[in-house]
Write a structure and sequence with these properties.
Blueprint (H helix, E strand, L loop, with lengths): L2 H28 L1 H5 L3 H5 L7 H29 L5 H22 L5 H22 L1
Helix pairs in contact: 1-4, 1-5, 4-5, 4-6, 5-6
Length: 135
Amino acid sequence: MPAELTVLALSGVLLLVHIFAAIHVKTKQYGVDWNMGARDEDTRGDLPPLNPLAGRLERARDNYLETLPLAIIALGGVVLAGKASELTAIAAWVWLGARVVYLPLYGAGVPKVRTYVWGVALLALLYVLGVLLLG
């Protein structure tokens, strides 16, 4: 299997980590009954604001969900187009590695470094997207 597809499969695992980390901390704040209920309070705005950690983990998850489609397009695209190479594989691993590092940095509230790590991930994806579009 091409490395780019392995990275995409692992990106699904990372998505689960994001989801479960965010909901775990949110459930600690709002309780198991909230988690197992209809969560109508969420849509009505009846809940108190999230604590800082829960808020950061939700924003990290949302950020990942915003960039994951680009990864799917770029990494899947180079494989489907027959343009995958050692460099696109390296870029794929760099993207995934940066996204793995990004979550604890964001969760811990580390400023600036988190943004630089996000930038590394984006540059890796832009490289792959460039290969897909320009050959």
